[in-house]
Amino acid sequence: MTDNPILHALAREGVLINVSVRFWRASKKLEPGDLGLDAASLDERLISLGRKRLLPKDALAQFALIESRAHAMVEQSTFPFLGGIAHFLPNRKLSETRQGLDALRGDFEAAKAKFKDAYADLRENAIEEWRELARELSLDARTVIAKIEASYPEPDALDRYFGFEVRLYQIRAPESLEAECVTFADQEYIVEARKRAATDAAAQMGRESEAFVGECVATLRQEAAKVCEDMLSSIQTGKTEGVHQKTLNRLLKFIEDFKALNFAGDAEFDRILENARSTLLSKTAEEYRDNAAALTRLQSGLKGLAQTAKTLAQQDAHAIVSRFGQLGTRKFTLAA
């Protein structure tokens, strides 16, 4: 393992997570031959085949919904790591995220069981619609149906098209190849090449990891600014006269989320948010609606917080990254 303290600190403070939701998309790219047509005789300006649905859209709508919710859950709890090869999940968000994904996996399995029960009827009804379409277009029905039928998975093979997988990884830089992994004849050449590649990769990963921590700090600050601006917009244009409690709760939720996602230890912005909690969230929405002066102070406070967050987001986060790296240095020293 490389001695880079940032990598050690990241490995200590969180894990990488990858979520994959797979389901049969029930579509097929039609070629002229699938419909018994001569490709040379088709005018592409008049006829466009492309991808066509093999089942009604609502037959798989539940899977699409679960997929979007799973990815949204990951997006809300993580930071894209090194260009998006995975997502970094801070330890304080791990339990909550795993519980949420486990619940979605349960929904996925229930939807899969329901789909498998209905699959035979869905398939037969869809093929009958294709058969009717072939007759209406005066196509060779046997050719069309044979091609379409071949595009449907067999019922006993459906499981391979569906999967809800959550994988967690520990951050680790590549290491050089051990001598015993190769034959004696190739040993010197391969070990040296692997050593150079591992050294270069580890150095690059270290540099990119430092940038990653800084980007995470900036991202949270930028999100705070957006929350404040959205709140101001809701107060000024919302249906409720003045301010709604849901609007105030948005800032409260962000502050709680910040604490869970602040793995880098952004103490300065944490203090700013705590001050905002005590000064801006000490009153209820009803109290703000009944007090024009207090409402004015709320709006002024939100504007100030948004501006401060934007300004800090543009600043160099080197000091925070350096302090964060000390966590890895201490761990490495203890382990040595």
Low-pLDDT windows of residues: 37-49, 332-336
Q: What is the total domain count?
A: 2
Our estimate of the beta-strand percent is 5-15%
Would you tell me the structural class of the helices and strands? Answer: alpha+beta
N-to-C SSE string, H for helix and E for strand: HEEEHEEHHEHHHHHH
Broad shape: flat
Count all strands and give the number.
Answer: 6
> Rg to the nearest angstrom?
28 Å
Mean of pLDDT: 83
Describe this structure in words.
The protein is an alpha+beta fold and 336 residues long. It has two domains: 5-34 and 47-169, no CATH class; 222-325, no CATH class. It has ten helices and six strands. A four-stranded antiparallel sheet has the order 4-5-1-6, with helices on both faces. A two-stranded antiparallel sheet has the order 2-3. A hairpin with a 4-residue loop joins β4 and β5. α2 (61-77) packs antiparallel against α3 (91-136), α6 (245-261) packs antiparallel against α7 and α7 runs antiparallel to α9 (292-314). The protein is flat, with a radius of gyration of 28 Å.
SSE blueprint:
Blueprint lengths: L4 H9 E9 L4 E3 L21 E3 L7 H17 L1 E3 L4 E5 H46 L4 H9 L13 E7 L14 H54 L7 H17 L5 H14 L4 H5 L2 H23 L3 H18 L1
Antiparallel strand pairs: 1-5, 1-6, 2-3, 4-5
Helix pairs in contact: 1-10, 2-3, 3-4, 5-6, 5-9, 6-7, 7-9
What labels would you give this structure?
alpha+beta; 336 residues; flat; 4-stranded antiparallel beta sheet; disordered C terminus; 10 helices; 9% strand
